[in-house]
Structures are given as C-alpha cells and as structure tokens.
C-alpha cells in the first residue's frame, strides 16, 4: 500500500536575472498517516520551496522540471488549478511562518475562520460554532471574544494559535507547518510546541514540520529529512539522527545547535564556508567545499545514496552501509 504522501525525484527551478536557480534537485520523501516528519536545514537549502510544492502553491517564476507530489496516490502538481484550490483547505492545510501576514487585516478572525470552512457544507452559524470549539482546543479560552477581534488586536502567539485552529478546521489529510515558531519569542515558542504535540491526536493525516530549529524537530517529529543545497542529504528516525548522524553536514548542523552547548563550554561551533551557488550546482557533493572529509571524488562525482539501516540513508561518498 502506498504512503499518504509521496514526493518522488522532485526538481524545481526559479527563473531569476542571474540565471535559473535549482532550488530542489531530485528530492524524495514519504509520510504515512499519523506520522510527523521534519524537514530541516539552514536558510536557502530549499525547504520552504518543498513546503510550497507540498501544497501545490509554488511561485509563478517556479518550474517543476521532474518528479511528482502524490497525495493519496494523486499527483497534485499535475492537477488543474481549480482542483488544487479544492484540495487546499480540505485535504491540505498549511500553518505559515508569519501569523501576522497569514490573515487579512480588514476582516475579523471569526469571518476568516468561517470562510476557511467553505467546503464543509455547514451553515455559517454552524461553522462559527465549530471555529469557537477549535479555538478552545488550541488554548484560547475566550473564543467568542477572539472571533470578534482583528489580527492586529491579538499577540503573535494568539495569532499563531488561531492559524493552527484554522488549519485544523478541515481535518486535512496533510498539514504542512512552515517554520511555525520562527516569529515567536522563546516562551511563546515553547507553548506552541507543547500545543502542537498535544494536538497530534486531532489529526488523522500526516504532519510535515519545516524548520531550521533542531529543538522543534526533536520535540515533534518521528522522522527527519535533512536538506542541503536543494537535496535531501540524510533521512533517519529522529532518535537515530540525534544520536548517530551519518552525513558530515548533519553532524556539523547538530554540533552548531545552541541547545547542545552547556554553560561555560566555550564558543559555539560554526560551519566554515558558504553553500554552493545553485544557479550552477557543483558536479560533485554540494557540501564538499565545506566538508573536512572531502577528497577529489567528493568534488567531482555525485554522491551515492547509502542505506545505513532500514530507516536511515545518507547522500555521501564517505558513508558505508
């Protein structure tokens, strides 16, 4: 039986003045119903482009070169736009990075959440009652008051809770959360992570968490895909990734996590160098110029995908199965 979500060899380029940017280069992943997967990497690795592809909402200057995004067996990227619109808000929902820009500033939260349920077939009064119930589930006690507020009248944390509630209203098969805690302070970030963890049982489908924050991955995810320079360089269950990372980039990324540095332990490590220019991707491994293990083969030949275990793979010449 096929997975609920399958991405197969997806390549996406952006047209730009300096040349076409190869944002995704042969990305593959999968997620089963009830599973939470994480997509992690530094800025520019392609994770937000992948998130946009998962909801079939790529920018107008983006071109899908190869690959598919299959939801319940259907390639959503090949569907007409009218069918994609029906999927969004019904089978697919998204929690965006910035809760302030996720809502219209001229409509109340209630009007917007009610409108998000257009495909439900319920009356407007019933949709409003459902919205109030969902707001209470995400920790907003004064739900009716919140529904009458405009976005600017709510704090960042409250807006993000409303965004989560809006995404859950349709009971989607796929929920994509793109940097769901980026715009929040540390205290509110912890509250949102706790809320998302407690709401896992509310979602019958798959959840994809897109973030640069390793702490979020560790708290929420079952499996992780590590991205670098438009490629998935490592895939592993979350515990294996933290305790036995195999790709040199994953090892370096975890070493740079501020959460891993104790008091008085010195300077936080960094990864030297810069990611490659994706208008002209290197012929070999994208991480080779920054990798302490790289040799001539790494610089000149594309790395193989090595299966380390039944659930862990790494895209690297230096990793052995």
The CATH superfamily is identified as P-loop containing nucleotide triphosphate hydrolases
Which sequence of strands runs across the widest sheet?
Answer: 6-7-8-3-9-10-12-11
Task: Outline the biggest β-sheet.
Answer: 8 strands, mixed
- What is the CATH first-level class name? Alpha Beta
Helix content: 25-40%
Backbone structural class? alpha/beta
Overall residue-averaged pLDDT value: 90
Rounded to the nearest angstrom, the radius of gyration is 20 Å
CATH topology: Rossmann fold
CATH architecture type: 3-Layer(aba) Sandwich
The count of helical stretches stands at: 11
Query: N-to-C SSE series?
Result: EEEHEEHEHHHHEHEHEEHHHEE
Q: What is the number of E strands?
A: 12
Strand content: 15-25%
What is the distance, rounded to the nearest whole angstrom, between the alpha carbons of the first and last residues? 27 Å
Bulk shape: globular
Point out poorly predicted stretches: none
Summed up, the domain count is 1
Strand and helix layout:
Blueprint: E1 5-14, E2 21-31, E3 36-40, H1 47-54, E4 62-71, E5 74-75, H2 81-87, E6 92-95, H3 109-115, H4 124-137, H5 143-148, H6 156-168, E7 174-178, H7 186-198, E8 206-211, H8 214-220, E9 223-228, E10 231-237, H9 238-243, H10 248-255, H11 296-300, E11 305-307, E12 313-315
Parallel strand pairs: 3-8, 3-9, 6-7, 7-8
Antiparallel strand pairs: 1-2, 1-4, 4-5, 9-10, 10-12, 11-12
């Amino acid at each position: 039986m096929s997975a609920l979500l399958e991405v197969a060899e997806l390549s996406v380029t952006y047209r730009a003045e300096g040349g076409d940017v190869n944002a995704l280069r042969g990305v593959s992943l999968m997620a089963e119903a009830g599973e939470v997967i994480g997509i992690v990497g530094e800025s520019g690795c392609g994770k937000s482009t992948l998130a946009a592809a998962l909801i079939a909402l790529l920018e107008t200057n983006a071109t899908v070169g190869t690959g598919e995004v299959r939801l319940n067996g259907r390639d959503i990227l090949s569907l007409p736009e009218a069918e994609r619109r029906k999927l969004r808000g019904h089978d697919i929902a998204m929690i965006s990075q910035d809760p302030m820009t996720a809502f219209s500033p001229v409509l109340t939260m209630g009007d917007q959440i009610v409108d998000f349920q257009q495909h439900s077939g319920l009356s407007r009064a019933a949709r409003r009652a459902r919205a109030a119930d969902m707001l209470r589930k995400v920790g907003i006690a004064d739900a009716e008051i919140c529904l009458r507020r405009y976005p600017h009248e709510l704090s960042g944390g409250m807006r993000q809770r409303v965004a989560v509630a809006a995404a859950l209203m349709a009971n989607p098969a796929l929920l994509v959360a793109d940097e769901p805690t980026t715009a929040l302070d540390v205290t509110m970030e912890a509250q949102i992570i706790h809320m998302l963890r407690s709401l896992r049982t509310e979602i019958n489908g798959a959840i994809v968490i897109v973030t640069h924050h390793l702490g979020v991955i560790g708290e929420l995810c079952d499996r992780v895909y590590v991205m670098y320079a438009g490629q998935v360089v490592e895939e592993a269950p979350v515990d294996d990734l933290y305790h036995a990372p195999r790709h040199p980039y994953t090892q370096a990324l975890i070493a740079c996590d501020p959460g891993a540095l104790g008091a008085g332990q010195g300077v936080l490590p960094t990864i030297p160098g810069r990611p490659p220019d994706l208008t002209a991707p290197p012929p070999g491994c994208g991480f080779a110029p920054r990798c302490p293990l790289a040799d001539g083969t790494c610089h000149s030949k594309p790395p193989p995908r090595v299966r380390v275990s039944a659930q862990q793979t790494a895209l690297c010449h230096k990793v052995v199965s």
